[in-house]
Amino acid sequence: MLITDTGVPERYIDIDDWGGEVMLRLDDGWCAALDRDSMRCTIYEKRPLICREFETGSEDCLEERRGIATAYR
Ligand code: SF4
Fold first, then answer.
1. What is the pTM of this model?
2. Terminal Cα-to-Cα distance of the chain (whole angstroms)
3. pLDDT tens digit sequence for 18-28
4. For ligand 1, atom 5: residue with the closest CA
C-alpha cells in the first residue's frame, strides 16, 4: 500500500477494492516493479515506504526468500 508519496511511477500504481493506492501486481501476484531476471527493484530510489521499512534478513524476509523459487521464469 502506498501511504506516502515517494514518486512511484503511475504505471506501477493500482487502486485496491477500498480505493487505496497499491503497487500494481502481475497475474502471479508479484510486484510489477520487480525485475524478474535480477530480482532487483526497478524503482529502488522511488520505492514505497513499506518497501523501505522491510528489513533485510528479518524473519519475514527469510520466509519470502524460502518461497522465491516460484518467482523465476
Ligand atoms: S522493493 Fe520490491 S515490492 Fe517494493 S516496489 Fe520494489 S520491487 Fe516492488
1. 0.83
2. 26
3. 999 999 999 99
4. 47
| pLDDT tens digits for range 40-73 | 999 999 999 999 999 989 998 888 888 776 655 5
Instruction: Please state the domain extents for the chain.
Output: 10-71
- The residue to mutate among 34, 39, 68, having the most atoms of ligand 1 within 8 angstroms of its beta carbon, is 34
DSSP 8-class letter at 13: E
Exposure pattern of 20-52 as b/e (b: 16+ CB <10 Å)? ebbbbeeeeeebebbeeeeeeeebeeebbeebe
Q: Is the CB of 47 under 6 A from ligand 1?
A: yes
Extract the C-alpha cell encoding 4: 506516502
Q: Tell which phi-psi region holds residue 39, choosing left (phi > 0), alpha (psi between -120 and 50) or beta.
A: left
Closest CA to 12 of 28, 57, 73, 26: 26
